[in-house]
Amino acid sequence: MNKPLILVVEDDRAIRNLITTTLEMQGYQYHTAGTGGASILEAVSHKPDIIILDLGLPDMDGVEIIKKIRSWSNVPIIVVSARSEDSDKISALDAGADDYLTKPFSVDELLARLRVALRRLRYDSAPNDADSVFQNGGLKIDYAAGCAYVDGREVHLTPIEYKLLCLLSKNVGKVLTHNFILKEIWGNALPDDTPSLRVFMATLRKKIEPVPSQPKYIQTHIGVGYRMLRFSDDTGEM
User: Fold this and answer.
1) How many CB atoms lie within 10 A of CB 127?
2) List of residues 6+ apart from 31 with CB closer than 8 A
């Protein structure tokens, strides 16, 4: 597979140069943009494979850029931002971001996040098994189509949310530890990032659970991890 084209959206010249130098050393192709307007123009005209996006741009908030891009594209979007509050992460993830990296960040961690996005690109383009539909009560996952449904209605998930849902569904009834989930979704190179996992799980629950505070599909095992309950189990209280 050829190295993908990455769009770097960052108005801070020093950080932009750090990211592009790192990409160049790894053999990636890239374009850059320093404003929200320029980033949207680049995304439309060059159709990048991955977008690295700062939220604090001079002309437009990054969350608005995510929403605009999501109106026509599912390109993986990795947010790199100085905003570290959970509310900022949730806003970006709810808008459709796939990953969230807080400044200051290490080059190794950024490259690890890019590898995760690359695996998702390869996974999305790979053929799937014929037996590819998971049904659990009102929850249905069509692995071949990459779609999820609740009570017959399609649920629009970010790629990370979808990967989490698939991982839980393929281990239905089993408790998956935080470290296991982090390793499967984000790869071995990442440090423990349980707070980020909790944010992703919260946004996933908001989309698939009728009452997120009383989940019937995904159960929390405090301090341990998560388990997808079989719908026939009546143990769906957190």
Assistant:
1) 6
2) 5, 6, 7, 8, 42, 46, 48
Q: Which domain holds residue 121?
A: 5-125
Q: What is the pLDDT of residues 6-23, one digit of tens each?
A: 999 999 999 999 999 999
CATH of residue 21's domain is 3.40.50.2300
Choose among 32, 23, 49, 187: nearest CA to 107.
Answer: 23
Longest pairwise C-alpha distance within the chain: 55
In terms of domains, do 34 and 70 share one? yes
Q: How far apart are CA 37 and CA 60, in angstroms?
A: 8
- 189-225, pLDDT tens digit by residue? 454 578 888 999 999 999 999 888 888 899 998 888 8
Structural domain ending residue among the three candidates 125, 141, 175:
125
Nearest Cα residue to 5 out of 37, 41, 38, 52: 52
Question: Count of residues for the chain?
Answer: 238
- Which residue intervals of the chain are DSSP H helices? 13-25, 36-46, 62-70, 86-95, 107-125, 159-169, 178-186, 194-208
Residues 224/238, Cβ–Cβ less than 8 Å: no
Same domain, 148 and 79: no
